[in-house]
Amino acid sequence: MDQNKKFKLVSSKKTRYLLPNILTLGGVCMGISSIKFSIDGNFSLAVTLILFAAILDALDGRIARLIKGTSEFGKELDSLTDFVSFGIAPVFILYFWELNTYGNLGWAIALIYSVCCVLRLARFNLTKIENQQEWKNNFFEGVPSPAGGILILMPLIYELTEFNLNFEVKQFTPFLTILIALLLVSKIPTLSFKKISISSKTTIFLLLAAGLIFISLLFYTFETLLIFGILYLFLIPISFFVFKNNQKKYLSKASEEDHEDVL
What is the CATH number of the domain that holds 169? Predict the structure, then answer.
């Protein structure tokens, strides 16, 4: 009878929870490792690990929803991982690269960014969207932490590219870090790209674009990251206007429904 009892790490009904959490743990390992390599002065590998952590962060939630492996544990684990990989690791990389030259001010800037990141994640966990406002699922409130973690690294990424524009970007590092920290805790809507409907006719073009992005990241990693970072910054005001337009349509529709109920 005892021989029939097999040791199981988790029950067979819950094995689907493992894969998303493994990806999440892989992300935190990369975030912590990036700090180690930045201490060693290997900033190119440190930035690359942050990129991999961001990719894993984008995948774990989508895979969890795809295989119906979402859980409260996974949600909390994901937030803790985001704080380590995008709230601590990137700003540590910046500190060892440039912010340490500012003394106590540089450390204060690093702390400000980390505090803003943890506040942003806490607010995100408490955000609840009503069923009547599902259109808001297409937007984040403020810049998400993975995007923020890469955006503050843009001066370093520029230094790692082969671009030679005779432009000194190090001096903008403290200002950019503070700006991104404020955008993290701001209420400026940014596109989340969670709810995008794609027709079957455009699928081939989406796959082609994904392939081109993968190839460009493979051969021109830092140049591609820099371009996407700049495009994302330009996308923020566009996101704001799209949000306001959707909000106006929602309020107009709600007003018409209330008017019909009165009649």
Answer: 1.20.120.1760
